Amino acid sequence: xxxxxxKISLEDVVPPVWRRAIIPGGISFSRxxxxxxxxxxxxxxxxYALVTSSGFHVSGAPEGAEEELDDFVLEKQGMTGGRxxxxxxxxxxxxxxxxxxxxxxWEHRVEIEKxxxxxxVCPRILMGEGSCPPEDCGGAAAFxxxxxxxxxxxxxxxxxxxxxxxPFDLDRTNDFLKAVYGGEMLSDLQEAIRGGDLDLMSVDPxxxxxxxxxxxxxxxxxxxxxxxxxxxxxYSGLRKQDLADRLVDVLTDPDxxxxxxxxxxxxxxxxFETLQENPVYAFExxxxxxxxxxxxxxxxxxxxxxxxxxxxxxxIKECYRRMNRAVFEEKRRRARRILDYCMAxxxxxxxxxxxxxxxxxxxxxxxxxxxxxxxxxxxxxxxEEERCVVCGLAYLCDSAIQWDIFDAILQEQMGKTYYxxxxxxxxxxxxxxxxxKPLAWKAVERFFKKEMRLKDFDAEFLCHELQMIVHxxxxxxxxxxxxxxFQVPEPTERQMIQMADLLMDAWNCTRMVTNRGxxxxxxxxxxxxxxxxxxxxxxxxxxxxxxxx
Length: 549
Fold this sequence. Notes:
The longest helix is centred in the middle third of the chain and has 25 residues, at 325-349. Strand 9 and strand 10 form a beta hairpin. The protein is of the alpha+beta class. It has 4 domains: 2-132 and 168-180, MM3350-like (Structural Genomics Hypothetical 15.5 Kd Protein In mrcA-pckA Intergenic Region, Chain A), CATH 3.10.290; 199-323, no CATH class; 329-430; 435-515 and 535-549. Helix 8 runs parallel beside helix 9 and helix 19 crosses helix 20 (456-471). It has helices spanning 29-40, 87-91, 140-148, 155-164, 170-181, 188-194, 211-216, 220-229, 240-251, 254-261, 266-277, 287-299, 314-322, 325-349, 354-364, 371-378, 406-413, 423-427, 439-450, 456-471, 476-485, 493-507, 520-524; strands at 2-10, 18-24, 48-51, 57-60, 95-100, 106-117, 124-129, 280-281, 303-304, 309-311, 351-353, 388-391, 395-398. The strands form 3 sheets. Strands 4-3-5-6-1-2-7 form a 7-stranded antiparallel sheet. The chain has a 3-stranded antiparallel sheet with strand order 8-10-9, covered by helices on one side. The protein has a 3-stranded antiparallel sheet with strand order 11-13-12, with helices on both faces. It is built from 23 helices and 13 strands.
């Protein structure tokens, strides 16, 4: 078995973000992608791709995804996708390009520096520097522009991103890598587990540390960070024990806990309840469970022992039991309904006036919503769901929108009315991947399958991506760039004409953020309040410049 020393450098980002690390050989491309994401600091929730100078190409979905496919391999290579071991590529290339998030396209140059024969290698970082950028911010170019030249509207977002970007911590990251991938080593502990000599469920909760002891195991800087997370002030000059004691008072208050957990997703709350009864070794958890554990660790409700056991201190468990369940469940229903409306609004409109969002909510619900409650609930979003960004206290924006076109989209929206479907139809958009799929897009999908010979999954995924490009205000050039990125075969002249007609029909049937949810076809017959002399705008896209050069 081989291990590889690699250097990973994030392209086009200043200051530099890079890591030198060791990863094991003999693993699949999908496993390698998961390791690279964790080494750099990405969540690993997006599609990825690997490209070499020799023409090898493989891409796939995150580990654990419903469609965990690594199948975009050039068939002429005679290879079988991302489930193949990485060694052949690593032994025949000095470097390759790793692309994370095929929408934002974060490019990493991966240099293969050494190869050594060894056994039982857990991925670890040797050195590195630079903070990983935030997810879903538009890619390197958009991120750098936002950091260097934010507009007045973007300043709050830029400040938020800077605050969220944690400094690179080598020891902490390596501890995390050990917790996640330590189970891949043939350790004595694992051998005991596999041999039946150790029962994981035999961990005695009474032998685990209490809340105060757990907090005291933190560094002072970590305790202060936890203070900041809970909005506590005045820690300057306090001893470490004082910091811990005051945190205990906050963390064990049932009313505080009820408010903090009211916006948590059902599956995350179920994980928290299970963990209260069953402490578990870190390497026994899935990647999703690790993320859920991390969510509660950030709050101070879950801790990790030196033996890599996730557990809930008895004081936290007692506090959870003392919560008024009826009040808690009512808070949860209310918070989840508000977040559903926020997610639906930013998915449908991209940018929505906060006053309009409140108007829509109040028009479809009995209990009215006010700004204070809205902002309080938004502050409780889980990390995976933080697509709703408040801009200048006036707008709620989808963070997936590229920030360099924020002002342009807002300008396009001005003077247009909002498309507001009935409650059931509106809340379908709470799913971030949902988009209304008219027959015109299904026709495009059939074209890619039949004429371009794409696999069913590839054609469906490509059409979804194209529709989202159109939805968020992309232009025809962006559509063709996406076709190139997905390596769609070069069409014949006949196919180009047919594809252009189909794309034009689909484009004009797509609900767009620039039209505040209306399609170009719907807008065509509508009078625009901002049109001169009552002119009716022609929003039908003729798809200019369809012929590829």
